[in-house]
Amino acid sequence: MRTLLLATALLSGLLGSLAAHYSAPVPYHAFCRVMWLFAKPCDEIGTKIVQQIRAFYPQYMLVSASALSVKANHTSLDGLQAENVTFTFSSAVETEGCRTGGQSISLGFTSLLDNGLNYCNLFNLLSASGLTSSPGFIEITNEWACLGFGLATCKA
What's 144's domain CATH number? Predict the structure, then answer.
């Protein structure tokens, strides 16, 4: 019962919490918003994300990094698609670790249904850095917060 209550609280707060961290995407731009919970400190999560962004150069270019957020740009291998990627960090009571928000927004006017491209921009960084197998890892998103989420087939 406790797990059900926690899951309900987390899901109901997803859109509100993500909206508080990010401004609304520009219409006609594909986007994805995800929240992750980790049982690790935020500085450790942020450091791993920054290291992975640097490892994926030139597809990912680090724009800025602080204790509260990491910003990067992603460009497809063919150079035809570009997205802004942002991660934000705050303490998570649920896991006694870090609540991490992720957002990827396509810069070009594209179909809103991007087949999971924006989701994969975020997930590939976490997966390649090993964060998806971290203790306490929980991912929270849905098709409303992350267009194309259900179609995503990510390959890091």
Answer: 3.30.310.80
